[in-house]
Specification:
This protein is of the alpha+beta class. The chain contains eleven helices and 18 strands.
């Protein structure tokens, strides 16, 4: 299996950006656009090879914007507040972006875009005067990850898995769901990973709700944690189970059934295949294992990357799987759920999240042995 090492140098990041600009140029030509404006924080991180324009963390829009033209021109729109940081800490000029700046109280962005594009047609990923919606165009350009993207993803997956499991292993009966979330966030922040989704549930809440927003409920005999972590724009997801005392054979069999569905969905996710194929397979597997209606109760996931998910795979919404594209499935049977992201490559799947401190269940997927999480039992 190929080894991925992120090239963090300015030269390495410029090479990554050049690949992405070429994709945008091709997409713009197909859509008849002269320029694309990128403002959403995830898209900004993608096109800048990991830079950030986030100030308010839990909203899509960033505080600076990138403009890419059909000729490959690279510009950044930044006010006087953001200008020093993006130059000194994000190396934005060294990466090849020409800065167009204004004072925070001015309103020159449209003038700058007109200066860059002239009378041409442009798109944007947020509402902007005169722009068409460019979200679908930008998303398509992100599906196939570059080597640097994959290296960052593997760092995220390894570090996220370890940091999450360190906290989960220390949970004890009587701990409050909200407190557990606080510990998870504290442990991950030091690695530059922030959680953009956290679901923690104890005992009956696991069965009652598919999306268990943490409450003041105290853990007794069982806990499920589902968490989405973000690093330099990339997002991945995972779910882990802890039992205090013997979980019982029925629970463990159901957990293994859920994990097997996910593993076989992964095996059906291959380059050039329509991702409706693993989706339909999941429905068949639920029925074979005695849970024919479970696929209806919660979605089964889909492609992810610089977002929690580009779309949920359904009969109405599906696409062709690309080389180096990331997927994450989350089959669930009431009371159990499994979930780990992986990258589709010619050599087989590369797991992003995986058990680091948790019990490991190995499975062979498309000739590759992958490590999947078991249930952590604490006596």
């Amino acid at each position: 299996m190929k080894t991925y090492v992120e090239d963090k140098t300015v030269a390495g990041r410029k090479q990554e950006i050049a690949i992405k600009v070429e994709r945008l140029k091709k997409a713009m030509a197909e859509e008849g656009l002269d320029a694309v404006i990128i403002n959403k924080s995830n898209n900004f991180s993608w096109i800048t090879a990991g830079a950030s324009n986030i100030i308010t963390r839990y909203c899509e829009e960033g505080v600076t914007s990138i403009v890419i033209t059909k000729e490959g021109g690279q510009y950044i729109l930044a006010n006087n507040i953001e200008y020093p940081r993006i130059v000194m800490e994000e190396d934005i000029e060294a990466l090849g972006f020409e800065i167009k700046s204004q004072y925070w109280f001015e309103d020159k962005w449209l003038d700058y875009v007109k200066e860059i594009v002239g009378s041409g047609k442009y798109g944007c990923d947020v509402k902007f005067p005169g722009a068409v919606d460019a979200n679908a165009l930008i998303n398509r350009c992100q599906y196939s990850l570059t080597d640097n993207d994959i290296a960052r993803y593997l760092y995220l997956g390894e570090t996220f898995s370890r940091g999450l499991e360190e906290v989960i292993a220390q949970v004890r009966p009587g701990d409050m769901e909200r407190d557990i979330v606080g510990r998870i966030n504290e442990n991950l922040w030091k690695y530059d990973i922030d959680t953009v989704l956290y679901l923690v549930a104890g005992d009956e809440r696991i069965k009652n709700f598919r999306h268990c927003i943490p409450t003041d409920n105290k853990i007794d005999k069982m806990m499920m944690v589902s968490c989405n972590g973000r690093y330099k724009g990339l997002v991945t997801k995972t779910t882990r189970f802890v039992c205090f005392g013997d979980p019982g054979e029925a629970f463990l069999k159901q957990y293994d059934d859920t994990l097997d569905i996910e593993n076989r969905m992964m095996a059906a996710t291959t380059i050039g295949t329509d991702d409706i194929v693993p989706h339909r397979l999941a429905k068949e597997l639920y029925a074979q294992k005695g849970y024919p209606e479970m696929w209806k109760v919660h979605h089964q996931g889909g492609p992810q990357g610089y977002t929690n998910g580009y779309y949920l795979v359904t009969e109405q919404n599906h696409g062709i799987i690309q080389e180096n594209q990331c997927y994450c499935y989350n089959p669930s049977i009431t009371g159990t759920k499994t979930e780990d992201g992986f990258i589709v490559t010619k050599e087989g799947p590369i797991m992003i999240t995986r058990p680091v401190l948790f019990p490991c269940k190995e499975a062979v997927v498309n000739g590759v042995t992958v490590k999947r999480p078991g249930v952590l039992v604490i006596d």
